[in-house]
Amino acid sequence: MSANPIVKLSFKEQMLQAREDAIVSTVNRLLAEKGFEAMTVDEVAANVGIAKASLYKHFPSKEDLAAAAMVKVMRRAQDFLTGLAANDSALDKLRAVVRWTMGLKLAGEMPSLPSQNSTLRTTLMGNKDYMDGLIDVSDRLGAMIEVAQKEGLINPRLPAIAVLYTLYARACDPVLEFLKMGGQHNDEQIIELVMSTCFDGLNAR
Amino acid sequence: MSANPIVKLSFKEQMLQAREDAIVSTVNRLLAEKGFEAMTVDEVAANVGIAKASLYKHFPSKEDLAAAAMVKVMRRAQDFLTGLAANDSALDKLRAVVRWTMGLKLAGEMPSLPSQNSTLRTTLMGNKDYMDGLIDVSDRLGAMIEVAQKEGLINPRLPAIAVLYTLYARACDPVLEFLKMGGQHNDEQIIELVMSTCFDGLNAR
DNA sequence: GTCTATAGGAGGATAGAC
DNA sequence: GTCTATCCTCCTATAGAC
């Protein structure tokens, strides 16, 4: 027994945190592999190596498991945005973000959630951590988009919100997995292809 | 009783065909509304107005219901391709096809299937009508893409298969529903926005 | 907080009468 | 081929002992 109850408590909390991190990592991977509907809670428990009932002591529902994974992804996005070179142009930053999200997707680290499931949407919208992260990321990207449009680098005739959605959509673009399944290109080539179609378009220039 | 067994048989077949058409239409709508996983067979039966067991006399599984809907969509796509103005350029035809698919999606007539579900994939790949249609449509689009690339209208540095996937992806682009939910634009404006990001890209020209 | 065991229910598919 | 009634599997969630 430790002589210091504070240290002891902190240690227990660390163990708790570590276990929850393990759970969220597993959920993140399974969500990326098979999507929300196909992922079962039994499977998560088995992969983490604990009983299903123990999972429910940490997270009250399957939806909250997915929300926790999304919170983690949002945190990573915020960290990535914060780490962007300050002297890069707004367009270069946006390009870097899109490259990063596509890399996550190809690496099997991007959770894929059905945009239609209403109970999941409700849980996500009710999760303050997730919503705060989403709003922060959207605000920062939106600011970059407007700067890039004023500089004439991003088409100023497109509504900024349409540009934002288009960038978000690249994070779950089926073209990535199709090209990967084709086996003709490696991950880096695939990313550059989709970067080209996204920013340059299909038309010749 | 009809005096002519041939007429009688034909009539019965017509009734059968009409009922199956009603089933497929309902499936198509439900797949567009809620996706494959969220659509239940009970729901399909209730919407058609027949018992669930009767459904299974027409189609052996839920996957085959979805496949039938996809066959119908493929037929519509083939008809659309056939009806394209012969004097239009390859690029104009491609643009018309993409516009048409996005219109279907916004009208709630484009079935949305999970690209991950393996049993569904198996059923689809085993469905000759679907596969024949898919290959025919892909061949025709592929030919247009190569022509447009040789004419210098589509970026020749992009692999044709990447262009094809990019066009297919516009038929299930979440940007369409996001912009629709925003309520700032009507369907036609949304289509023109996504047409612009697809062919012209996000960059200013 | 971890476990075993099970409740509870949704949903795909079928039996059997007509 | 249509119906009613039912089976059966899978999956989320919880009870209750330790």
Rg over CA atoms of chain A: 20 Å
The N- and C-terminal alpha carbons of chain A lie at a distance of 71 Å
Q: If you consult CATH, what is the topology of one domain in chain A?
A: Tetracycline Repressor, domain 2
Low-pLDDT ranges of chain A: none
Number of helices of chain A: 10
Number of strands of chain A: 0
Name the largest protein-protein interface in this structure.
A-B, 47 and 47 residues
CATH architecture of one domain in chain A: Orthogonal Bundle
Approximate strand percentage of chain A? under 5%
User: Helicity range of the residues of chain A?
Assistant: over 70%
**SS class of chain A:** mainly alpha
CATH class of one domain in chain A: Mainly Alpha
How many strands, what sense, and barrel or not for the largest sheet of chain A?
none
Q: Identify the quaternary structure here.
A: homodimer
